[in-house]
Structures are given as C-alpha cells and as structure tokens.
Write a structure and sequence with these properties.
single chain; six-stranded mixed β-sheet; 6 strands; 26% helix; 44% strand
C-alpha cells in the first residue's frame, strides 16, 4: 500500500487524506464549484454521493497503486455499508489545483 502522504499529485493526495479523515470541509474545498463525478459509469450528484458513500459510513481509501502522474489510483475502498472492495479512481485536476471531476468504480 502507498501512504497517502506519498501520493504524487497534490490534489489527489489531499483528496485521499480528506476522505480518510472524514473531513467534509477539506473535501469540499478540494473541488471546483462545478465538480462532477461518476460511480460505475453513471454520473451522480456529488454531494449526495459523498455523504452516502464516504462521510455517513466511515469511508476509507487504502491506495494499492497509482499511475498517470498520480491522477489514477487503484484503491482498496471500505465503508460500513459495503465493506471492502477494490476500486479504480481517476481524477481531473483544474488549472487552479482543485479537482473538477472524479470517476470511481470497481476495479
């Protein structure tokens, strides 16, 4: 596993740290105002999805690998609802260093 502090991309590093700390304020601050996301290929309401899949159920990312300059991860993701699963994450980072889109799904 890769320690979150060792991830290559600063925005992705901060995203993983915010998820693992359950820090909703830090999470929101990392996203552009118009950020979007998808889960298993379907676009979702980002705020609702994050509350349901991360913050209300103890979401945690254990990073197995990174690629694409740190903007693509393979993660053992767990939460209290679904347990643990191997997931893939891809991030688009805007010029201002915030995340404009992320996509996740089973790896």
């Amino acid at each position: 596993m890769i320690e979150p502090s060792q991830l290559s991309d600063p925005a992705v590093r901060a995203f993983v740290a915010a998820v693992n700390a359950g820090d909703q304020g830090a999470f929101r601050a990392l996203l552009t105002p118009d950020a979007t996301m998808s889960d298993d290929g379907s676009d979702r309401d980002l705020a609702q999805w994050a509350e349901k899949e991360i913050f209300s159920c103890g979401g945690h990312m254990a990073v197995a690998s990174e690629s694409d300059g740190g903007r693509a991860l393979v993660v053992d993701y767990r939460n209290d609802t679904w347990g643990e699963m191997r997931t893939a994450w891809r991030f688009d980072v805007a010029a201002d260093g915030r995340i404009s889109r992320f996509e996740t799904g089973q790896a």
